[in-house]
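Lecture notes, unit on binding sites. The following record was shown on slide 14. It pairs a sequence with nicotinamide-adenine-dinucleotide.
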Amino acid sequence: MKILITGGAGFIGSHLAHLHLQKGDRVHVVDDLSTGRRANIALHLGLSRFTFSEADIVTWDGLNDAARAADRIYHLAAVVGVRRTLEDPVRVVKTNIAGTERVMRAIEKSGRRPEVLVASSSEAYGFNPRPMFSESDDLLLHSRDHLRWCYAVSKLTDEFIAYSYAEKFGFKLTVARLFNTIGPRQVEHYGMVVPNFVKQAVTGRPITVYADGSQTRSFADVRDTVRALDLLAGSPLAPGETVNVGADQEISILDLARLVRERADSQSEIVFIPYREAYGEDFEDITHRRPCLDKLFELTSFQHRWTLTATIDDLITRARAELGLLETKELHPG
Ligand SMILES: NC(=O)c1ccc[n+]([C@@H]2O[C@H](COP(=O)([O-])OP(=O)(O)OC[C@H]3O[C@@H](n4cnc5c(N)ncnc54)[C@H](O)[C@@H]3O)[C@@H](O)[C@H]2O)c1
C-alpha cells in the first residue's frame, strides 16, 4: 500500500510512518519541519520504501503527484496546540485552513478515491459540560476571546472542508478527533505538559503546574493512537464518520505531576503558575477532557496496549538516556 502522510516528520506523523514501514508499506512524508524534526524520521531516510519531501503543503508543487500516487492519505500537517496558535494565528489560517483545502483539492484532481484520514482535535468540543465527550455532542465555544478558539475553529473548519470534498468527489474520509497524545519524540516546547513534567522531574527542577492543577485530561500513548488511526483509515465502516481517538482514563494535572514525580523517584518541588504568566494573558482553559470511545470500539478492533504509568515510565527512561544518565539499551523499542 502507498501511504502519504502530511506532517509526517512530527510527533504523531513519525510514529505513523514507522508503523506503516513496519507493515511493509511505501511511505511518502511531506513536512516543512516547522515543528517536526528530521531526527524523527532519520532512521527511515535510507529506505527505498520511504520518501521525504521537505515542503510546505500550502505551496508544494509535488502535492498533486503525491496525492495521485497514494492509496491512503493521512492529513496531519498543522500548526498544533493552543499556545502556538495564539503566537501566530495567521499561520494557523494558512496551514490549517488553506493547507487542508489544498490537500483536498489535490485528492479531487487525482481522479482517484484513496482512503483519507484527517486529524482533528478534541479542542473542537470547547466547553462541553458532559463528563465524557461524544461525537454527537453539541460544540460549545465561547464568543469572547475569539483568538483563544482559533485552533479549535481551524480544526472544525478542516472537518467541514474535508467532508465537503469527500461528499462531492466520493472519496472515503474519516475524521479523527484526537485527544491528548503523549509518547516518545513529543517535545516540551509549546507547553506540552507530559514532556515538561518528565524533564523537570528527572533534572530535579520544579514541576510547573498551571493554575491550581484541578483541570483534568486523558492521555493516550502515541503508539496506541497510530494503531487506532490505521484501523480507522482501513475500516469499511468508518468513512463518513467523525471518531474520537484517545484514552478514557482521566487524571488531574496536579495528580499527573505527583505521578511523574513518584515514578521518577524525584525530589522536585511542585509549583503553581497562573495562566497569565504561562500564556501572557488571561486564558480560559478547558476544565476537563475525556473521550467517549464507544464509536472507535464499534468501528474497529482497537484495544489500548499502554497505560499512563507505563508510558510515563518509558518517557522517564528515555529522558534519562538523553541526558546521559542511563544506557540506551534499557529503552523500550519504538
Ligand atoms: N498531539 C496531540 O495531543 C494532538 C491532539 C489533537 C490533535 N492533534 C493533531 O494531530 C496532528 C499531528 O500533531 P502532532 O502532535 O504530531 O504535532 P507536530 O507539531 O509534531 O506535527 C505537525 C507536523 O506538521 C508539520 N507542518 C506544520 N505546518 C506545515 C506545513 N505548512 N506544511 C508541511 N508540514 C507542516 C510540522 O512540521 C510537524 O511535523 C495535528 O493535525 C494536530 O492538530 C494532536
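Take-home: The radius of gyration is 19 Å.
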